[in-house]
Structure formats: structure tokens, C-alpha cells
Amino acid sequence: QAQATKQALLAAEKLPSSQWIHFSCHGYFDFNSPLNSFLALAECCISPLPDDAESNQRYRQLVNGEVLKEKCLTLADIFQLKLPECRLVTLSACGTGLSDPFSSSDEYIGLPSGFLSAGSGGVVSSLWSVDDFSTALLMIKFYQNLFSFPPGKALNEAQCWLRNVTREELLEWAENQDMDEKDKSIIKEYLELWYREDEKPFFQLYHWAGFCAIGE
Fold it and tell me: What letter would DSSP give residue 61?
């Protein structure tokens, strides 16, 4: 939440020894300057738009009107990280797996390549703007699967589950989860409000196919 600032992340003593790192935030890939691609951490957003925003490289304006400043964690910052113990970085944010398709290099430069260069064994990221609700369910199932499968298989199993699960199966699943009762109520209310009893709420590929796993 508010404590997840760029400064706090870079100053964290346990970061170099972390085995699992999860980012749940906004992501942005800069096709014109890939090293300026970023993860938007806490204290990135400012309002109103500064007078010099259009000419100042420190600022980025998102589609929803939010303005982001230099406290974002950029790809250039990520390349400077040292994560020798990290097994997996999960980028549960929009467009975090994008790279420049027109690059003349034989290597694709993007946020995942930054974390792989920093030492992470693998990265899970997204190829488009993802839905908050369905992504939350996918991530819960993904981490549960990691007890039995490597990341790529764990993600694939979670995607197949989300694609095929019915509303009633989801309600039963949520009720049996070890989570806050308030969160269970949110899931229940959302599913019962928007979907029929026998419907597969997240069958469309938009909800599950955007995430990919690279690395080990």
C-alpha cells in the first residue's frame, strides 16, 4: 500500500536475499525509450498536471489521467538491482511483459529482462491491460499451484482453472479459502451480481491469457 515506495524497496535490507517478489501495481512500457518503462509504486501519482509535464521526461500521464513522476521504478533502475537469491518475480500489473517488436537487437528489452538480468530465475508478467478482479483470482490459484508445480506449469494450471470454472464452483472455492471474511463477501457479491449460476465468468481469454512465465 502506501509504504511500497521506490525508496523503501531499494533500501530494503532483505531485497538481495528475497526468493519471491510480487508487484501489484500499474505498469507501463515505453516503446520510444524502453529504459523509461516502469512500475508505478506508492507516491508516484501527482495532480494536477505540472506545467512542464509535456516537455519533462520525469512525468508520464496514464490513460486514466493520473500523472506519474520520477519515483516510479524504471527499467533502468531494475537493471541496477542485485537479486541473486530470487526464484520468481511476479508482475501483477498491466502490460508488464511487453517489449519492442521493432527492435533491431536479437534480445527483447522489457521489464522481465531487467529482473532476469538482476538475477531472478523467472518472471511472470502480462501482455495487456488486465482486469483487477479476475487477476486477483488467477494469482491466488497460481501461488497455490506453486506448492506442486514449477512457475510455468503453475501458471498454466491456474489459467485453465480460471477459464473453465463456473460461478457456483468459484463461490464454493472462495468459501473454503483462508482469507478475510470481507474479501470472501466481495467475491460472493461480485459473482452473484454479474453472472448466472451455471456461467463461466472468466471464459474469455482476456481474463487469463495475458499472463506468461519466462525463465526457469
Answer: E
